[in-house]
Amino acid sequence: MGKTKKTILIIAGSILLFLVLVVLFISPLTKYLIEKYDVSYTGREITLDWAYVNPLTGYVHLSNLEIFEQDTQKVFFKTKGLSANLAMFKLLGGTYEITEVTLDEPLGYVKQHNKLFNFSDLIEKFSSKDSIKTPSETTKFNLLNIKIRNGEFHYNEDVTPITYFIKNVNIESTGLRYDVDTLPIKFAFSSGIGTGDVEGDFTINLKNLNYSLGVVVKQFDLQIINQYVADLTNFGSFAAILNANVNSVGNLNSVDSISNSGNFTLTDFHFGKSKNEDFASFEKLVIAINELSPKNKIYDFDSISLKKPFFKFELYDSLDNFQTMFGVDGNNVSAVNANENKFNLVIEIAKVIQKISKNLLTSHYKMGRLAVYEGDFHYNDYTLSEKFALSLNPFNLVSDSIDKNNKRILMSVKSGIKPYGDFNAQLSVSPKDSSFFDLNYHFIKIPLTAFNPYITTYTTFPLDRGAIEIKGNWNVNGGNIDSRNHIIVLDPRVSKRVKNKDTRWIPVPLAFAFVRERGNVIDYEVPITGNMKNPAFNFWDVIIDVLKNIVVKPVTTPYRMEVKYVERKIEKSMNMKWEMQKSNISSSQERFISKMIDFLKDNPNAQITITPKNYSVKEKEFALLFEAKKKYYLNSKSKNESNFKAEDSVAVAEMSIKNAGFLNYLNSQVKDKQLFSVQQKAAKLIKPELVEAKFDLLNKARVSEFISYFEDEKVEKQVKINKSISEIPFNGFSYFEISYKGEFPIFVEDAFEKMNELNNEKPREKYKLGRKKNNTVN
After folding, report:
1. What is the overall mean pLDDT for the chain?
2. Residue 309 half-sphere exposure, CB side, CA atoms within 13 Å?
3. How far is CA 7 from CA 10, 196, 322, 499, 729, in A?
4. Contact 236, 272 (CB under 8 A)
5. Contact 67, 49 (CB under 8 A)
6. What is d(CA 443, CA 319) in angstroms, rounded to the nearest whole number?
7. Contact (Cβ atoms closer than 8 angstroms) between residue 679 and residue 670
8. Element holding 19 (H helix, E strand)
9. What's the first-to-final CA gap in the chain, in angstroms?
10. 518: which strand partners?
11. Which of 249, 258, 251 is nearest to 206 (CA)?
């Protein structure tokens, strides 16, 4: 027994010593083997500080593991620590099970060039080249309790190029089992650029690729989109913040299999020429989804609301602001889309949205509320002799209870029109067939003078008075139209002809003689019939009125002249118009000033107050263009300021801003390729201080010219000049507003009384209310 016990102790001691030696030496041996055979097995250099391997417990830990890029010393992946536990006893039963894997503070780099990634070589190297195994050969492998702690991962694509990374990456999963198809994952990370946090749960069936996803996104900065936008545009800037709480199920092999619920919120959206100049923006977009399932043809939205959207469309001599950005007809986008080696996230998102929404109209769709609040939509045209600008602001659209099962969808639109005007419309449309709808619309208080850039360019005759009102209703059944449209132009009046080489001559005064009726209005009904593809416009009302005017107007000329005389008398008593960039007073204005002087002499206690109201935006535009043309003129004529004479000034004023020599000069002086209009380039060429100085001189000259008449007659103390006001006048010209204190001039009272009489007479009585609500003077 003593000998046997001794033998057993020796054997046990030997085994224990062997195990101790194994534990002591296997760890450095593991480090040695990894670093010796790394390239031959992986094609990569691998280093680590130390390794710990315990074959008794199955525990492995690699400290500061680094894997390098293929054939370089650049880090591909590294981690502060890689730990794993192997279930040793289950090996005896033929099951390979790693009970836990933990990566501490991993740092990884994904790099892409065309379709190749910096890990493509690893995929190729470790791809199985064996034939598909039969079920009996299935390996029993479990990988459980996977954890990634505080990771950071970078993505770089050098063709577009794209640079982005996420940080604070934490991932947990109960892991994979050979006899279970689903893999559950919990994840959380933060944006590496800007703000934003994401967390969620993801479960995927590895056999059929069905998945479910629940994700919460908080204040996520979408700066990465800006890099993809740069690939699609010649210039541009994008910014937005995303918040979301979404649940999705679907299949990775089929985009339209997705079914979503939850909400998306985009805030501080900006897209445009630069960070300081937007083409489109909005404060907030909220999309609340009850169920969105393209496969099941269900589009059920709780609501979609858009707050403070902004959109600007501009026309230049060539192209518009969006074509200058995306190329002619979107060529930049087409080129990127056609490049199979390029991945562009913006295009891919657009494709997904297109696939998801392609069956919308043939599906069951429902929306509790669709709303647009406080919109601001701008249209600018720089192709004319002067800039034309119009905007819808504030624009509001509301539609409740949109449902395909309803008989009708009702939509209401209300908007202001800048500089003046209002618009409202009501639409009732069949949700099953959009060729059945009813539309009522009304435009009101729109000044004719707002369209002077077009009117002057195409006729040479600007208008200095008048208002437009348009209203109508459309009843469309199966595409067949029954429409009545009523156009009223109140008190239109033609101003002096503008001599400019940009303009084309059309005798507007003669045209007005045919189309304007006896009450100084243009009033036409324009029915539209036919169908949506081939509408028929009925102009009989217009033709009959023109023929009637030819016969009736000569007889009523004295009446019309009387109306015109009284209108002008009242206007001159209330304001004095200034022609653009002019400070001289006309002979008719002189006659009125003389009457005012006589009135002040006869009434020493009376006082008049003058408030200069300047069309500053337009006056400064004219001054800017004049100075730019003048600079070109001096250069082309080898002149300087000292020998710039009156006839030179006239030549510059009449010079077209589309003059080829001037445009070439402007392009040679202004090298900024993101300036597309003459006005923008001129603003770069001419210092703003010079334009302001010229504008101030003009205003002072007008005041000085006006007050000089009163000073000559020693009644200037009865004239008070207020501080000037900048505005966009309804009549389209800068003017002096005149108000009276004390006695009111008899000739003015008489004119108002006479105007009241005329307005109450038959030709004008019909439009009395219209004149009042459309801001016309009388």
Report:
1. 87
2. 17
3. 5, 68, 92, 124, 115
4. yes
5. no
6. 29
7. no
8. helix 2-42
9. 133
10. none
11. 251
Segment 172-186 shows an average pLDDT of: 93
Domain span including residue 650 = 559-773
CA distances from 276 to 237, 238, 239, 377, 527 (A): 9, 11, 12, 17, 46
- Greater model confidence, 141 or 748: 141
Q: Helix 616-636 crosses helix 646-654 at what angle (to 10 degrees)? A: 110
Determine the pLDDT at residue 562.
Answer: 56
Task: Provide the token pair at 54.
Answer: 């315990």
In the numeric block, which tokens belong to residue 281?
């923006």
Beta bridge partners of 68: 75
Please give the helix or strand (H or E) that residue 565 lies within, else none. Answer: helix 557-574
Number of domains in the chain: 2
DSSP-assigned letters across all residues of 102-162: EEES-EEEEEEETTEETTHHHHHHHS--SPPPPGGG--EEEEEEEEEEEEEEEEEETTTTE
Which stretches within 218-311 are classed as H helix?
Answer: 223-232
409, with CB counted inside 10 A (0-12, 13-18, 19+), is: buried
For the chain, give percent helix, strand, coil, nearest 5.
35, 40, 25
Other CB atoms within 10 A of residue 463 CB = 23
**Can you give the C-alpha Rg of the chain in angstroms?**
39
Q: For 286-312, how does the pLDDT look when each residue is reduced to its tens digit (9 = 90+)?
A: 999 999 998 888 999 999 999 999 999
Q: Which tokens go with 560?
A: 């019309």
Helix (H/G/I), strand (E/B), else coil: 455: helix
* Position 766 in a domain: yes
- pLDDT for 755 equals 57
From 441, 446, 547, select the one nearest 489 (Cα to Cα).
446
Structure tokens at 175: 């892991």
In the structure encoding, which two tokens stand for residue 522, read together?
């243009």
Contacts of 680 (CB under 8 A, 6+ apart): 382
Which residue has tokens 């008489």?
Answer: 750
Half-sphere exposure of 503 (CA within 13 A, CB side): 20
Task: Report which residue type is found at 773.
Answer: K
**Block residue for tokens 């062997």:** 18
Cα separations (Å) of 686 from 308, 580, 625, 683, 690?
34, 20, 9, 5, 7
- Examine the pLDDT at 557 and tell me if it is beyond 80: no
Whose tokens are 């001289």? That residue is: 584
Phi and psi at 340, nearest 5°, equal: -70, -20
What pLDDT, on the 0 to 100 scale, is given for residue 342? 82
CA pair distance 730, 768, nearest whole angstrom: 19
Give, in order, the Cα–Cα distances in Å from 350 to each of 27, 128, 739: 53, 36, 60
- Residue 106's nearest CA partner among 75, 84, 85, 142 is 75
**In sequence order, what DSSP letters do the residues of 187-216 get, joined into one string?**
EEEEESSSS-EEEEEEEEETTT-EEEEEEE
Q: Is residue 731 part of a domain?
A: yes
Q: Name the band, by pLDDT with cuts 50, 70 and 90, for residue 83.
A: very high
CA dihedral over 342, 345, 350, 356, signed as positive or negative? positive
Q: How far apart are CA 624 and CA 35, in angstroms?
A: 73
In this structure, of 169-173, 277-281, 558-562, 678-682, the range with the lowest mean pLDDT score is 558-562
- Look at residue 24 and tell me if it is in a domain: no
Residue 697 lies in a domain: yes
328-387 per-position pLDDT tens digit = 999 999 999 888 878 888 998 888 888 888 788 778 889 999 999 999 999 999 999 889
Task: Output the CA torsion sign for 721, 724, 728, 732.
Answer: positive
CATH of the domain at 702: 3.30.1330.60
AA letter at 118: N
| pTM over 0.90, yes/no | no
Which residues contact residue 215 at a Cβ distance below 8 angstroms, ignoring those fewer than 6 apart?
198, 199, 200, 201, 244, 245, 246, 248
Phi/psi for 151 (5° steps) reads -85, 170
